[in-house]
Structure formats: structure tokens, C-alpha cells
Amino acid sequence: MTVRIALIGCGAIGTAALELLREDAGLSVAAIVVPADAFAATKDVAARLAPGAQVVSAVPAEGIDLVVEAAGHAAIEAHVLPALQRGTPCVVASVGALSAQGFAEKLEAAAVAGKTQVQLIAGAIGAIDALAAARIGGLDTVRYTGRKPPHAWKGTPAEQGRDLGALTAATVIFEGSAREAATLYPKNANVAATVSLAGLGLDRTSVRLIADPSVTENVHTVEAEGAFGNFELTMRNKPLAANPKTSALTVYSAVRALRNRVAALTI
Hints:
By secondary structure, the protein is of the alpha/beta class. 32% of the residues lie in helices and 28% in strands. The longest helix has 14 residues. It is globular, with a radius of gyration of 19 Å.
């Protein structure tokens, strides 16, 4: 059986996912959902990577088995919630959207109403399974530190009061809760939201974001302590070539989630 997918978004993440999925016999991208002003460019990408896909402005009500969001936070409100309510399972990449007060509950309620499920991918960070398991036994502290080269923070509040291009040493640009981090840095701090949702929650997970001219990779560190013991995980992810704010691992995480839908054996 082939799973028919509606992909929301055809930017850096969406295009990279299409490139990896085009050889998958069990997965078929049937629709690519983008705003009307992006139709022309998206049709060019679809012709090359997903010739069987229709380019549309909303998820088709029929003929879709799975919706995959890779378009940013607004797309969840506009497209994922209605799909869930119709009973179509969804995979969400923009986990930072759940930092908005009550939004995680809203997403869950839509899935319950549609008698289906929404999956949040781990994205650029590992050990999410260990963190979620540790929560069952009791977690005391969880801290996430995100370190990226200065240019990866352009177009964010990190530019206020400082010249990112002139930094000569590692500079802390944010320190606070995961909810605040994901709200202020939605394109950079999806990892913070993912870590918090797996562990202590958005308000009890501490976050530090750093602009560091000495690194060329996106460096993510998670520290956790609780009844299970403690762990510290550091990942040095290469950025997605088309978007330095995003780790390439985010794309691989999304593709893994899709392949697990059709695989006979998963891990």
C-alpha cells in the first residue's frame, strides 16, 4: 500500500525532503500545499522531484493519507488543525509553534476530535526518547544550550543592540525559559520546544542561545538530571545549505518519520 502525502511547504526543508523521498515506493507526495504566489516556483520543483503531485493552496479533503508540515508555525493553524479534525494524521516539523499558550492542547484536541494522531518530530536533536522515558521516573532539571555561528541569528532579536558580523567571541543572546526562546526565535529554537515537550515543559526548561564566531556548525547540548541519573548530549549538526537557521538533521528526521509509516520494522 502506498501512503499518499500532502506536503505543506516547499522551502528549504520541503524541497530537501522531496529529494530524499522520490525513490520511496511506499510513499507518494500527492499534493504540495503553498500560498498562491508560490505556485509557479513550486510547480517547477514538483516537475523535477514529485511529478505526480498537484500544487494547491489547501490540503485536499480526499485522497490524502498523511499530512506533513514543513512551512512554519502559521501553517499548523491554517492546514494541520483542519486536517486533524477531518481524521487525517499529521507530522509536524515546526514544534516551536506549540510554545504559544494553549496551542499544544488545541492541537491535541483536534486530533482527538478526528480520532487520529499528530506526531512531533525530534528534528535537529537526539535523545528525545531517553528524555521522555526519564520524565516517567521523574525529572529534576533540563537545560538546552543552542550555539550557532552569528550569521545564523540574522533576522532575529539577536541583532538588537549588537552587530553580529563584528562578534569576536561567543556571546549569549538569550537566556530564559523554552517558551520565551521559542516565541522570540521561532526559526532557530524549535529544538528548545521539542526538548521541553519531551521533558519538563516549556516553562520549567531552561534555555541559553549563543552566537559564536568560532563555530561553523549548529551545536545543540541537552543536560538532564532526575531519578534515572543524568545525561549530557552534544550534537554538532551541519546546517541545511539552503537555510543556515536549520540543521540538515531536521530534514532527515522528517523523512525517517515518513518511512516509519510504511516500514515493517521500525526503531
